[in-house]
Task: inverse folding
């Protein structure tokens, strides 16, 4: 998994509208990049709603909030519409960015081992350098922790 001080890998992925978003197009802004397992599941929904509710506070600190999962653009569209989400969601079905950040890992659930996305968040500075990380995120209180970290940057 990438750590503080490392440069973000470059990326170009489609958002929920099918538009291509690259890290270069975000240069000059801080980025909260949150990786989550699956659209429209309880924890992922709660996390996305909470980021959406606090989005104005992130924007006031020149910060873009972006969720990433392996779900399709169409799935992201439905997810955003269903819950009136305001965050940008990127589709990474090839797992390129998910693997580059090291969040595609072995998971266990009820004794079954499988590969999946470990819920993780990265805060990048205006140059794309990782300045904070949260790994194996528990949703409750997470968005507030990330916002506190953003408010302390300048």
Result:
């Amino acid at each position: 998994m990438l750590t503080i001080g490392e440069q973000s890998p470059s990326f170009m992925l489609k958002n929920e509208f099918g538009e291509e978003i690259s890290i270069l197009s975000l240069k000059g802004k801080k980025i909260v990049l949150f990786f989550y397992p699956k659209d429209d599941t309880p924890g992922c929904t709660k996390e996305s709603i909470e980021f959406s509710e606090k989005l104005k506070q992130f924007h006031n600190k020149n910060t873009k909030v972006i969720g990433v999962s392996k779900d399709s653009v169409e799935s992201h569209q439905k997810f955003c519409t269903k819950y009136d989400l305001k965050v940008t969601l990127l589709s990474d079905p090839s797992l390129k960015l998910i693997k580059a950040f090291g969040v595609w890992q072995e998971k266990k659930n009820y004794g079954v081992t499988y590969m999946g996305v470990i819920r993780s968040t990265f805060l990048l500075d205006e140059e794309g350098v990782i300045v904070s990380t949260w790994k194996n995120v528990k949703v409750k209180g997470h968005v507030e922790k990330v916002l506190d970290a953003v408010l302390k940057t300048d």
Observations:
- Residues 12-151 form a domain with the Glutaredoxin fold (CATH 3.40.30.10).
